[in-house]
Design a protein that fits this description.
Elements lengths: L1 H5 L6 H33 L4 H50 L2 H6 L2 H43 L1 H48 L1 H6 L3 H27 L1 H25 L5 H42 L20 E8 L10 E8 L4 E6 L5 H6 L9 E6 L2 E2 L5 H7 E4 L8 E2 H5 L8 H10 L3 H5 L8 E2 L8 H13 L5 E5 L7 H14 L4 E5 L3 H4 L4 E6 L2 E6 L1 H7 L1 H15 L1
Parallel strand pairs: 3-10, 3-11, 6-9, 9-10
Antiparallel strand pairs: 1-2, 1-4, 4-5, 7-8, 11-12
Helix pairs in contact: 2-3, 2-5, 2-10, 3-5, 5-6, 5-10, 6-8, 6-9, 6-10, 9-10, 14-16, 19-20
């Protein structure tokens, strides 16, 4: 884990090293000060040599100022190193997530990914800052202070050496017991984030069904679970503090008693005993720093493991070596295709699909809810890979294409339309960064969106709220169609993306397609027969299998499912 995470230090290696260097120099100064104080008492004051006292006093002031400078410098560099490391790590995680296929994303919940990008990275950042500062300072201070103590009194130093193993054993036991609770705690963080995200995303539905109390209770339960596991973990970790305090008081008593006897017996000087108390404080403070760092590193290890899970996730959709960089045309062919989300041949969503679509044709796909219409079209831009069989676009297997090139040439307006915060123009340029205003207006005219856009006071500079919450469902659909058209794709797929527009507008959109993009292959998934009846041919899906293929009239005459849908919709229109 450490090796994998350390790759993200990158350009912050120098400030990380300088942090440790400044910390080491700070420790040197702090360790020398008590030694100078002992000489001041035992030599200067004992001999009433004020010149010597002043000389050592000025030297101690100088060392204090130098120590302060090194301390400030180490703090600044540690902050830069920690923040930079966290920045690189977040970027690495985000870039990795961008490579994920839908299958990879489904493996991790959205809330879990958010927690890993925020809370987990924060924990690792704090631990890293502690490692390059506290975990350098504390052991160095501990060893240096012990050496200085040993030069003054080997007997008193044994007191320190006796207490250290006791503290190490206590910290190790506490860590081993707390780690499982930290892992459980972070899972509860995921659950809390999931509820918050779901509630905020669907706040209108919550209010429409007056479910605020239910959602509040659900959030309360989630936070209570998080609280319980946090307390379990913290109860164990908090034991470190009283154990350390016990060690401090016990060691102080032993040093006072043994040291006093040594002074009385003239085996030790008064100034040296005073210095021993300072070194005692430094040693025990170092041990407390180590225990605090261990607590933070324990939490960070759990967070680091969760981060590595994402970074190590094997992306199941990859480019081959020397992938094809050009899509010749919009022809599509499904050859003995079967598909399962779980990659299980015994749990197929699509089975034995064979379709041949010529470039420029308009094809309708219709079927009941759950008949796998969306699953079928997601195989064309390779959002998922087939479980068996092959999909061809432009005469080439989709697996042989560069993914970016393939998806640039296949525009999909998904069933769930998504707009992002920003102006209408900025949203439309997702389809083409370099689109001119004229191209944007033309695409909107084809999608029958220009009319309502012109009615807004700011027209194409109208601000869209996150998720498109300030436009209607039909307006959102038409904007998404216009965005897809701006890509000038060889294949355009509409996944039930005109369901919120009236039949007259739907008809005008199809007519615009016929006139404006005659060479683009168009696949239209719809619930309404009227949306697909003018297609070159229509595919009827039922339980993941092709139930019928033909023109509107052929299917009315020969396909019972299509005929049943048509009859029910005609009766509905008559009513």
């Amino acid at each position: 884990m450490i090796k994998k995470l350390s790759k993200y230090i990158k350009e912050y290696k120098f400030v990380s090293i300088m942090t440790s260097v400044f910390v080491a120099l700070e420790v040197v100064m702090e360790v020398l000060i008590p030694k100078s104080m002992a000489k001041m008492v035992d030599v200067g004051l004992a001999n009433s040599d004020m010149q010597y006292v002043i000389k050592l006093g000025l030297l101690m002031i100088f060392m204090t100022l130098i120590s302060l400078f090194f301390g400030i410098s180490s703090g600044i560099n540690a902050a830069k190193a920690g923040a930079g490391f966290a920045k690189n790590l977040r970027q690495g995680l985000f870039y990795k997530i961008q490579e994920f296929s839908f299958a990879n994303i489904d493996k991790f919940s959205t809330a879990s990914l958010v927690t890993r990008l925020t809370t987990d990275v924060n924990n690792v950042q704090m631990a890293y800052s502690m490692i390059i500062r506290m975990l350098i300072r504390a052991p160095l201070m501990l060893i240096s202070a012990l050496i200085m103590c040993f030069t003054m009194s080997a007997k008193l130093t044994l007191v320190f050496l006796g207490i250290i193993p006791f503290l190490i054993i206590c910290v190790v036991v506490i860590m081993s017991k707390a780690m499982p609770n930290f892992r459980s705690m972070f899972k509860r963080y995921d659950a809390v984030n999931s509820i918050v995200q779901e509630n905020l995303t669907n706040i209108r539905t919550v209010k429409a069904f007056v479910r605020e109390d239910f959602e509040t209770e659900k959030f309360k339960n989630a936070t209570s679970n998080l609280y319980d596991y946090s307390i379990k973990a913290e109860k164990l970790m908090i034991l470190a503090s009283p154990i350390m305090q016990f060690a401090v008081y016990l060691t102080t008593l032993l040093v006072s008693w043994i040291g006093a006897n040594l002074v009385v017996n003239s085996s030790m000087l008064t100034g040296e005993l005073m210095s021993m108390f300072t070194y005692l404080q430094q040693i025990l403070t170092s041990l407390m720093m180590i225990s605090m760092s261990v607590v933070m590193v324990s939490m960070a290890k759990t967070s680091g493991d969760r981060i590595i899970e994402v970074l190590d996730e094997e992306v199941d959709l990859k480019n081959k070596n020397n992938p094809i960089k050009e899509v010749k045309d919009g022809s599509i062919k499904f050859e003995n295709v079967s598909f399962s989300y779980s990659k299980d041949n015994h749990n197929l969503v699509l089975e034995d699909i064979n379709i041949d679509i010529k470039s420029g044709q308009t094809v309708g796909i219709i079927g009941a809810t759950g008949s796998a219409k969306t699953s079928l079209i997601q195989l064309i831009p390779r959002l998922f890979d087939t479980t068996s069989g092959s999909v061809f676009v432009g005469g080439e297997n989709v697996k042989d294409y560069d993914l970016d090139v393939l998806r640039e040439n296949v525009s999909v307006v998904l069933q769930k339309n998504v707009l992002f915060s920003g102006t209408i123009k900025e949203n439309l340029r997702w389809g083409n960064d370099n689109a001119t205003d004229e191209e944007i207006i033309q695409a909107c005219k084809s999608a029958q969106a220009d009319g309502f856009i012109q009615s807004f006071p700011d027209k194409y500079d109208t601000h869209i709220e996150q998720g498109g919450s300030n436009v209607s469902g039909g307006q959102k659909q038409r904007l998404c169609i216009a965005r897809a058209l701006l890509k000038k794709p060889k294949i355009l797929i509409l996944d039930d993306s005109t369901s919120a527009v009236d039949t007259a507008t739907d008809s005008m959109i199809k007519k615009a397609f016929y006139n404006d993009i005659p060479d683009t292959t168009k696949i239209i998934i719809a619930q309404r027969i009227s949306s697909v009846q003018d297609s070159d041919f229509i595919i009827v899906l039922h339980d993941g299998k092709i139930n019928g293929v033909g023109t509107h009239q052929q299917l009315i005459n020969n396909n019972s499912i299509y005929n049943e849908i048509y009859t029910s919709q005609m009766k509905g229109s008559e009513v």
